[in-house]
Each structure stands twice: as structure tokens, then as C-alpha cells.
Write a structure and sequence with these properties.
mainly alpha, 50% helix, elongated
């Protein structure tokens, strides 16, 4: 038997069993059972809904309705879902103004999808609650 140049023991795995450079020891990562379950449930059609909407659609609609009522946490959550979490206030640029206009149009389109009307001013007020750059457009 060939003599070993390397002692095997606690914290000293055999040379062929060591982690390879650039390769994760757990390439699949942690099992995402709970997350997968949430996604599956959200994609299912809600049996109690007569229009055949998914649970995710119903949750989004409920959040939208709360935001429309002026519920500030719901407004924040809704705008975060549309535009991502707001960052520190920055000066309004043409690009920012275009983004705000796109967000207003998206809010209005979603309202129309649910047979609701949302004026530009109300959409802007919803956005301004958590997007300081949108607030700069309010006259």
C-alpha cells in the first residue's frame, strides 16, 4: 500500500473529497419547500371566486383596493411591487419623470382591468407616498 503524504481526520478530508475551487458544496442551495408551497397555492384558482381568478390575482386586487382607500402601508406595498423599494430621494431627472409617468399609466391600467377608474392625480398621489420624485410633480 502506498504511503499517504496527507493525514486524514477531523477537518482534513481525503484529497479527492475536498471542495473544488469555484464549485459550491451545496449547488442546489437550501430546499425551498415553503416558498414552493406559497407559489403553488398562489397560482391555484380560488374555488370561491366566481370569475375563476387565481389567489395571487385576488390578493393583488385586495392590496390595490386597500391602497386606493388611502391605506398607507398598502400604498407602500403596492408601489414597492410595481417599482421596487424606493431609494433615497434624488433630484428629478427626465428619466425619473418618465418612470413616474410609466408607473402612473401602469396603475391606471391595473385599475381599468378591475373596472375601477383612477385619475392621474390620484395615481400620482399614490405614488408620491413612497416615491419622493413623484411628489415633485404635484402642483
Amino acid at each position: 500500500m502506498a504511503e499517504r503524504e496527507y493525514e486524514i481526520g477531523y477537518g482534513k478530508p481525503p484529497l479527492g473529497r475536498r471542495f473544488q475551487k469555484g464549485q459550491s458544496g451545496n449547488p442546489g442551495g437550501r430546499a425551498k419547500i415553503i416558498s414552493a408551497t406559497y407559489h403553488r397555492i398562489a397560482r391555484e384558482v380560488d374555488p370561491a371566486d366566481d370569475k375563476g381568478r387565481t389567489r395571487a390575482e385576488l390578493m393583488a386586487l385586495a392590496l390595490y383596493r386597500e391602497a386606493k382607500k388611502g391605506n398607507v402601508p398598502a400604498i407602500k406595498e403596492f408601489t414597492d411591487r410595481l417599482e421596487g423599494r424606493s431609494h433615497q430621494s434624488v433630484a428629478l431627472t427626465i428619466d425619473r419623470a418618465e418612470k413616474v409617468e410609466q408607473a402612473i399609466e401602469q396603475l391606471q391600467a391595473e385599475a381599468r382591468e378591475h373596472n375601477d377608474e383612477l385619475s392621474r392625480d390620484n395615481a400620482l398621489r399614490l405614488l408620491a407616498a413612497y416615491m419622493p420624485e413623484a411628489g415633485e410633480l404635484i402642483n
